[in-house]
Write a structure and sequence with these properties.
Number of helices: 21
Keywords: ATP-binding, Coiled coil, Kinase, Nucleotide-binding, Phosphoprotein, Transferase
Shape: elongated
Radius of gyration: 42 Å
Catalytic activity: ATP + protein L-histidine = ADP + protein N-phospho-L-histidine
InterPro entries: CheY-like_superfamily (IPR011006), HATPase_C_sf (IPR036890), HATPase_dom (IPR003594), His_kinase_dom (IPR005467), PAS (IPR000014), PAS-like_dom_sf (IPR035965), PAS_4 (IPR013656), Sig_transdc_His_kin_sub2_dim/P (IPR011495)
EC number: 2.7.13.3
Number of strands: 22
Protein name: histidine kinase
Distance between the termini: 39 Å
Strand content: 15-25%
Length: 625
């Protein structure tokens, strides 16, 4: 059966930022493709049909409703579920989306976990529907095959007596027919090897007259008359005078009106070797039974030929589930377990036979012990066993008691959760304290009229805020050791633009990939950006009312590159540039083990590069921002 990880989800939205978010959110569970508009969506779907559409309603050109209407009119695509993800939250839009054939309608903003659960549910339903279609096709093929088999069997039944005799002569079994007068009408040549008699001498004579009843007592007159009178078949195992054992079958053959036995069809088979093998199997079975009963894990087996009843239930399983073998053998899941648990077990049994592979399931069960009900946790490994024709036959399961492991794991997770909360609170308090320091600097700056003092306070305040933003992101994230630096740049540069823009037409452009940096590297990098961007706002556009400041951040080939540039007036003599900001930048670059290249060509450019292994987290080739 197809897995969710193999499924393809197509996200259709005109926002590249939202598409990037959805790719990052869905990629861990399935394959993802994206489209920026309706025509692109339809073109991509024709090349590879997805298993689920996640679609915005408001898009330029074709709306999400229009795209859904086209999909549902396409015979090849109409079965694919459509889920609207939109910021429109009125009931009319919801009803319209569902009436067009959508299976769901989720309103933005949404919880990531809720989206993932809904996507998984729709993908599971899609996979189940495809599995049912495949099963239906398989059943149709089985019906067709069985019909052909019945037709062929009918043709064989209608074969002539001559063909029957020819076949009987080629069998190792002795085949004969006796009429109502008790005499042999036909007898196969196997009578020579089985009983040492000549078939020609037996034809037309009774078993007593031919002496065959002395060689095989099952051919006595009393046995033959009982079959003629009662009309029931007789099956006997009898020893031969010359040694060995044979199985004798006396089958009544009725006339056209099915009211009277007109002849007896007899089959005699040598089963001496078979009985020897059965005795060996019984001996091996006793050995295996002892072995299974003493295994350190619970073992049970159900036989589908007897309605799925349990035929193996070892001592360890009785100890684990507090259900004895005497209670369990001959019973089914429904007889022994609550209905909800029994349904899960039957479902997983079916899955094991459908896939032909072992299925592992973790279950919980209230065990009735001496001190009352106690919840226990188990891991059940199911192994399917099929017969010679590949049909489901036996389901073998091994049961492991994992209660102690589950309890220990829960205690560990609880301890980790408490530590995460404590670390989150530490980041929150550090961020708050830094913001208090920033506010105090801002307050102090407001109490002086000296521009130099005010400027010094604002620079110090910017540096403090640059550190505070790192702790703010750590507080908001689930990871407390590294951050997505692109998010950090958005908040930091936005504050600098607001503080130093002074109403001028200065454009601030930020491009960054999805690289994550450890907090020990993120703070120095943030301070570097703060110093360089602030310096550009203050000095790069002297005498001008407009300009552009660019921040470019990326990782490639194991190195990280951070470039801050402007198209301002530049600097003629960089060697004389000894401001506190540039001094701070050089010190921070050395701190992260990097290098700094400064150039003045149509403005200023500061390029900082450092090895990625000084950071933590994950380096990704993500979309440019």
């Amino acid at each position: 059966m197809k897995e969710i990880s193999q499924s393809l989800v197509m996200v259709v939205d005109d926002s590249r930022a939202f598409l990037d978010l959805m790719v990052e959110l869905l990629s861990p569970i399935c394959r993802v493709s994206v489209a920026l508009d309706g025509p692109s969506c339809l073109a991509l779907a024709e090349r590879e049909a997805p298993d689920l559409f996640l679609m915005d309603v408001q898009m330029p050109g074709m709306s999400g409703f229009d795209v859904c209407r086209v999909l549902k009119s396409d015979q090849a695509l109409r079965h694919i579920p459509v889920m609207f993800v939109s910021s429109i939250n009125d009931m009319e839009s919801r009803i319209k989306g569902l009436s067009l054939g959508a299976v769901d309608y989720l309103v933005r903003p949404f919880f990531s976990q809720e989206l993932l659960l809904r996507v998984k549910a729709h993908l599971k339903l899609k996979i189940a529907q495809e599995s049912l279609m495949q099963e239906a096709e398989y059943l149709e093929e089985q019906v067709r095959r069985r019909t052909e088999e019945i037709r062929a069997a009918t043709m064989r039944i209608e074969a002539s007596e001559r063909e029957f005799r020819s076949l009987a002569e080629g069998l190792p079994d002795m085949v004969f027919r006796i009429g109502p007068d008790g005499r042999f009408r036909s007898i196969s040549g196997a009578v020579r090897s089985l009983l040492g008699a000549d078939p020609g001498e037996a034809l037309g004579r009774t078993p007593e007259e031919s002496g065959l009843s002395n060689l095989c007592i099952a051919l006595s007159r009393e046995n033959l008359m009982r079959v003629f009178q009662k009309g029931d078949q007789e099956v006997m195992e009898v020893p031969l005078l010359e040694g060995g054992t044979v199985e004798v079958r006396l089958l009544p053959e009725r006339g056209p009106d099915d009211s009277k036995v007109i002849s007896i069809l007899g089959i005699i088979r040598d089963i001496s070797s078979q009985r020897m093998v059965e005795e060996q199997l019984l001996s091996q079975g006793a050995f295996l039974s002892t072995l299974v009963d003493n295994l350190p894990v619970g073992v049970m087996a159900k036989d589908l030929s007897v309605g799925g009843a349990y035929v193996i239930w070892n001592s360890k399983l009785s100890q684990i589930l507090e259900i004895s073998a005497e209670e369990a053998l001959g019973m089914t899941e429904g007889d022994l377990f609550p209905s909800e648990l029994a349904d899960i077990m039957v479902r997983d049994d079916r899955k094991a036979f459908e896939t032909g592979r072992p299925v592992v399931t973790d279950l919980s069960y209230d065990v009735a012990g001496p001190d009352g009900l106690t919840v226990r946790f188990f891991r059940v490994t199911r192994v399917p066993i099929t017969d010679d024709e590949g049909a489901p036959s036996i389901l073998l399961a091994m049961v492991e008691d994992r209660t102690d492991f589950v309890i220990a794991d829960r205690e560990l997770m609880s301890s980790l959760h408490d530590k995460d909360i404590l670390l989150q609170e530490v980041h929150h308090r550090v961020k708050n304290n830094l913001q208090v320091v920033s506010s105090l600097m801002n307050l102090q700056a407001s109490r002086t009229d000296d521009p130099t003092v005010i400027d010094a306070f604002l620079e110090s305040r910017s540096r403090v805020l640059a550190m505070a933003y790192v702790h703010e992101l750590l507080y908001r994230n689930s990871q407390f050791s590294d951050i997505r630096f692109a998010d950090y740049l958005d908040e930091l540069t936005g504050t600098i633009s607001t503080t130093y823009g002074d109403g001028r037409d200065i454009s601030l452009e930020v491009e960054a990939d999805d690289t994550r940096l450890h907090v020990d590297v993120a703070i120095p990098c943030g301070l570097i950006v703060n110093e360089l961007v602030t310096n550009a706002y203050k000095h790069a556009f002297s005498g001008r009312e407009s300009g552009t400041v660019k921040v470019d951040f990326r990782s490639e080939g194991g190195d990280v590159s951070l470039i801050v540039s402007d198209d301002g007036v530049g600097c003629d003599d960089l060697d004389k540039e000894d401001s506190l900001g540039l001094t701070v930048v050089r010190g921070l670059v050395r701190q992260i083990g990097g290098g700094l290249v400064v150039s003045s060509d149509r403005g200023m450019s500061f390029e900082v590069s450092f090895p990625f292994n000084r950071g933590a987290g994950e380096m990704k080739e993500g979309a440019r921002r």
